[in-house]
Amino acid sequence: MNLNKSNFQEEISIKKKALITGITGQDGAYLAKLLIDKGYSVFGTYRRVSTPNFWRLQCLNIIDKITLIPADIADMASLLEAVKLSEPDEIYNLAAQSYVGASFDQPLFTAEIDAVGSLKLLEIIRHLNKKIKFYQASTSELYGACNDKKMNESSSFIPNSPYAAAKLYGFHITRIYREAYGLFACNGILFNHESELRGLEFVTRKISNAAAKIKLGLQKELYVGNLNAKRDWGYAPDFVEAMWLVLQQEKPEDFVIATGESHSVRELVEEAFNCVGLQWKDYVKEKDELKRPLDVNYLCGDITKAKQKLNWSPKVSFKELVKIMVNADLDRWQRYLKKDIFPWDAPNYPQEINIMKRR
Questions:
Q1: What is the CATH number of domain 203-231+263-299+318-348?
Q2: Is-catalytic flag, 21?
Q3: Selected catalytic residue, list 21, 139, 204, 259
């Protein structure tokens, strides 16, 4: 059907708009692509830094399909301006200091960003437009020392890191604003979700990257922390679909998003090195300095509610996830050796430097 000018303008005016904080991160990039594919107008906040970090958006070929707005989750005025400029129907708060280990080194910064940042956005929605739907990126780290075999929406939160404690505030302030002010505000309690776009500071990508480099003779060994820690690892593109589904429900609720399987870091290492035909024990060593002051030994999610109400379940298995990540890093380093130019993050992580760890 041909649209005349007035019909075209009406179609544009009713097109959904979404604002994603933290759009340059793994989840932000994948969520942006998902929403673009669904016909959304997508806006994303990014921090003005000396070296802008847009490599993920470039990898997904979507950087020219989104509108970027400079803003900082620590700066209320810039957040307000971002919401006013984008006039979103939905806000996905993915901006965070998301590295658990770093939260022990920078607990105050982590609290400001991960806890108070969510409150700032909720206050903006409350005063500016209560019709905006709000998604808060919560985390399985909230469960911490919880001993449940599988954690669900009713399991106890016993955080074991400054990161988890800050996220606990974000979880409850979202719930409080939903109940006190009638906002459509939801928490997605996402268990670990990884991908080829994961940052190198995270253990999964650290392992996949090392396996690729060792295979190509670019690295000799890999040091890791707690090989016995067990996590519920899924694929990030699967999980961002769940984020979107959470905001499409008739009423606001909180959901656990996971795979329902738990695997140890040791299993991950073994699988990664199997992908490149190497015996992991010949190259991998534990290092006490890399262990957290207080760790979480086991996490596994119960997605019964997500299956029933969101009709969502993960598509990519643990072994498939590891293979995707290792193959992606292997391809990158092979292209690097050929002198190809392409967007990625490894050149920004110099290996031979001394960084003093706080104990």
A1: 3.90.25.10
A2: no
A3: 139
